[in-house]
Design a protein that fits this description.
The complex is a heterodimer of chains A (86) and B (141).
Chain A: H1 2-24, H2 35-67, H3 79-82
Chain B: H1 6-34, E1 41-48, E2 51-55, E3 61-63, E4 65-69, E5 74-80, E6 85-89, E7 94-98, E8 104-108, E9 114-120, E10 132-138
Parallel strand pairs in B: 1-5, 4-10
Antiparallel strand pairs in B: 1-2, 2-3, 5-8, 6-7, 6-9, 9-10
Classes of the chains: A mainly alpha (86), B alpha+beta (141).
Chain lengths: 86, 141
Amino acid sequence: MSRIFGFTIVIATLFIIPFVSLSFASETPGEYIDRKAEIWNLFFRMMTVAFVVGGVIAGTMVWQVWRFRESNPKAKPTPYEEKDEL
Amino acid sequence: MAHSNWPEWIYVGVVIALLCYVGAEAWNIENIVDHVPEDAEVIKVTAQQWFWSFEHEDGTKEVGELHLKKDHAYKFEIESKDVNHNFNIHEYVVLLDAVPGQINTVWFSPNEAGEFDIQCREYCGLIHYNMRATLIVEDVK
């Protein structure tokens, strides 16, 4: 599995990514843009994604700590604890 | 013990979708930003310790000051004569390395008249902090 993954990465780097980049490279001249607006808007969109992901991960960790604490009434002993192996 | 793993697959799917969105969006904007208009005037920018010099297409040279017209496109060809520098016009989000023996290009179109700072953003020696120039955008009609 890891060999296939490695092989795919190498092939993608050597052939697929340059091919796709070339295919999308347009021959037509560019248009006037407000560079500042484009770049800052991209930044804000990326930050929205980053903060949502950060919130979900942090929330999941807080929930796990709360849910699986020893004193939670819903906590079940692990198989090791049941057999008094700990 | 067998257990349901559908939440894991949803998680993996969401992560892949987000990565695709982030990559595609960044790539798209990068393409738009890199795409130079046909009528862009080429300005040769030379960095050296510790000042900036500019050469317009008609051969006009400027040191420490750069006069441009509002709402025109300019393509900078940036090179360095000594060490690595970085050409930055903060107000217009122009930022590119000046590397000896290499010409790097970036384009922009000033849409506001006024005076703006040009500065070096790569530590280049003792007087790096004062390696500045002024961009003067004129409203010529």
